[in-house]
């Protein structure tokens, strides 16, 4: 029998045993859905995060205080907890680094703020950040109207603000919010600038829900605990990145009074290091997804082997007739192997379609804005389907090929 005829025969057999074939195909589809779906979701989210990292500046790095509050070193000993970077330390670092790079200082004030104006109010999910004159440029935020903070406003801690587009839409629909007043955190702020619409970033609203105030203003606001200041340093030339990071580390150690021989009391994170952490994390998720898919496909292969053994038993007389008409053992084995592969491929195609759809739905739910087509994982899914078909169908196919034609013709 030719390959095409074997495939036609496989579909005829599937049609005659439709229910159990469909159930087996669905088990295979579940395994492939788990594999392709998890891998698609991870890759789609990773793609979105990499784009976010790139938009934050490929030639920049951040400095944050190092903490081990929830981590243990080897042997179960709790690691040292270092104090946060203070306002004075951040300003000293910025001044001492000088013209080697551009430094932006910021402090997170609150992430659950309600903003009011003209008897209207926003949802209590607006973020307030205090930043210096370099914050907008280093974060790649652009103004659609208005202006940035003036030197006098930055030095004196004026009650002025730059707001995101969502705040403008809710408080000043159809109007330009510049030079108008908003109320938040018990103070009145004059709006001096409006940020361009950025869209959602991993479900957080991006710059659209941001209220930026001068760094000095944020430092003067009443609070229950000390602010944690973030330092972002941008390098104009990529080739100077390593040199500037080394110089910045030395300056920060001096500013933080780290003793010679003692480990750094702060962390230096660049886009590359964030991507490396993301790769490591996504690798663990992929391993877990692969394990789930393996267990499901193992069950599916056992079910498929059982179905094929039953099929061989039911078609014993048919096998005897084929052999009596001249079919060889190789042709009989090929017929049953192709039937097993066809069942797997049909289930796999359904699983791939479901996996791609579910994976993109999950990534869309957490903030991804594009539809990701995982050609690699789709190809891997098909290869796995063919492999499962071969592994599950080989023993039943060999058993069919070894049947004696005389005994087979006598089978009732």
UniProtKB/TrEMBL annotation:
Residues 21-224 form the MacB-like periplasmic core domain. Its main location: membrane. The chain crosses the membrane at residues 21-42, 287-312, 336-359, 371-395. It is found in: Cell membrane. GO terms for cellular component: plasma membrane. GO terms for molecular function: transmembrane transporter activity. Keywords: Cell membrane, Membrane, Transmembrane, Transmembrane helix. It comes from the Bacteria. Residues 291-405 form the ABC3 transporter permease C-terminal domain. It is a multi-pass membrane protein. Belongs to the ABC-4 integral membrane protein family. PANTHER family: ABC TRANSPORTER PERMEASE YTRF, MEMBRANE COMPONENT OF TRANSPORTER-RELATED. This is FtsX-like permease family protein. It comes from Hymenobacter jejuensis. The lineage of its organism: Bacteria, Pseudomonadati, Bacteroidota, Cytophagia, Cytophagales.
């Amino acid at each position: 029998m030719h390959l095409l005829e074997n495939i036609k025969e496989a579909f005829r057999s599937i049609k005659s045993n439709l229910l159990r074939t469909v159930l087996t195909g669905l088990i295979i589809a579940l395994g492939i859905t788990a594999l392709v779906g998890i891998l698609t979701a991870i890759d789609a989210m990773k793609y979105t995060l990499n784009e976010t990292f790139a938009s934050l500046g490929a030639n920049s790095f951040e400095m944050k205080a190092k903490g081990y509050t929830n981590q243990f070193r080897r042997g179960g000993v709790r690691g040292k907890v270092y104090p946060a970077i203070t306002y004075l330390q951040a300003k000293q670092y910025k001044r001492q680094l000088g013209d080697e790079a551009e430094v932006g200082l910021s402090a997170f004030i609150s992430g659950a703020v309600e903003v009011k104006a003209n008897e209207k109010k926003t949802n209590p999910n607006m973020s307030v950040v205090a930043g210096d004159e370099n914050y907008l440029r280093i974060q790649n935020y652009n103004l659609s109207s208005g202006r940035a903070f003036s030197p006098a406003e930055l030095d004196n801690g004026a009650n002025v603000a730059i707001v995101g587009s969502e705040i403008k839409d809710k408080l000043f629909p159809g109007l330009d919010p510049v030079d108008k007043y908003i109320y938040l955190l018990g103070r009145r702020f004059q709006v001096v600038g409006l940020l361009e619409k950025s869209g959602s970033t991993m479900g957080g609203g991006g710059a659209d829900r941001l209220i930026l105030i001068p760094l000095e203003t944020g430092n003067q606001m009443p609070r229950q605990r000390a602010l944690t200041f973030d330092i972002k340093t941008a390098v104009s030339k990529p080739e100077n990145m390593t040199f500037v990071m080394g110089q910045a580390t030395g300056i920060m150690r001096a500013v933080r009074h780290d003793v010679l021989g003692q480990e750094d009391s702060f962390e230096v994170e660049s886009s590359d290091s964030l991507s490396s952490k993301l790769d490591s994390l996504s690798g663990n998720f992929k391993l877990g997804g692969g394990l789930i898919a393996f267990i499901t496909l193992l069950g599916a292969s056992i079910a498929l082997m059982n179905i094929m053994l039953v099929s061989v038993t039911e078609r014993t007389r048919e096998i005897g007739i084929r052999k009596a008409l001249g079919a060889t053992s190789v042709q009989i084995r090929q017929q049953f192997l192709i039937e097993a592969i066809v069942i797997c491929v049909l289930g796999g195609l359904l699983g791939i379609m479901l996996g791609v759809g579910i994976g993109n739905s999950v990534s869309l739910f957490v903030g991804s804005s594009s539809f990701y087509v995982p050609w690699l994982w789709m190809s891997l899914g098909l290869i796995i389907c063919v492999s499962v078909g071969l592994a599950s169908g080989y023993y039943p196919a060999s058993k069919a090929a070894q049947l004696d034609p005389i005994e087979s013709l006598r089978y009732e």
